[in-house]
Specification:
alpha/beta, Rossmann fold
Amino acid sequence: MNQILLLHGAIGAKDQLSALSVLLTERYEVHAIDFYGHGGKPLPDEPFSIPMFSKQVLEFLDSRSIESIHIFGYSMGGYVGMYLAKHHPGRIRNLITLATKFYWDEPVAAKEIPQLNAGLIEQKLPAFAQQLLQRHHPQDWKTVLEKTKELLLNLGKNNALHLNDYSEIEARCLLLLGDRDKMVSLEETEAVYAHLPDSQLGILPGTPHPIEQVDMNLLSFMIHHFIESR
């Protein structure tokens, strides 16, 4: 049976992909991980970074003697998947990303940082604050936000992947984006799509950025159709 690994987004956890996992289990052996500091995983001593999370994925695959695998990555998870595809060719068979922000510079990072303000989240979005508290327990969700801020600031100063990097990626890639995503632009997604040697682009109708608002039946269909199309 084909194997697929699900990677969650920043300040998220693998449980957000549980519904997708159930749908994919009909056809695949499904794996999912919580990145360090997320979903209750211990916080690392080093800063959050795309290379660190990518190394964690490799360690997970090696621990299960998995040479190559399909990967679905939501948001930051998709970026981690792309980094792996660039630096570890052969480990990823097919890569599907959804709502992944590929373009980072200092103004973009500065725009995203205020959304990670724990005080404002507690004040204006108390239900979301409670979700973060439960999602990352026993770790401090506020520390997770602070380390994520640092990650974004570092991406703004030195993006982990540049456009010319994508032209060297050998894995087949499907880039998915919601038509109502206010964080990720179609332009940046199309730019990466145009540089990938073997890629497809798909738009999910009526879909904003949050994973909770994605139609999982449609998403699972598109993932399966892409993987089985060759």
